[in-house]
Design brief:
single chain, alpha+beta, OB fold (Dihydrolipoamide Acetyltransferase, E2P), five-stranded mixed barrel, 5 strands, rod-shaped
Length: 116
Amino acid sequence: MKQLLTIAAMLAFSGLGMNLAAQQTPFTQAPSTQDPMPQAQADPANAQPSARSFEGRIARSGDKLVLRESSTKTSYQLDDQSKAKQFQGKDVMVTATLDSNTNTLHVVDINAMDTK
């Protein structure tokens, strides 16, 4: 009878120890092959920057059109020369993402500014 109680106590304590260990170990799920979001989009390091607005004037710099931002006096290369061409010499608002390595704006949209 004493052996039976000893075995029961050992089983109870080992179960308690496993339960405590499971509570302290964070659960990590293996990647699913049916993951609806590709890893490239889920990884913040690969996330695309969101577009923002830049205000300035479209001007020629050498053989390229650039945006000369009015507030910072910074010139940005424009990746879409065809969109920029119709606004040469005009004040505009460019919606774009900035590639800070090359100082290039990846143009989403260009709109003329109202000059009053």
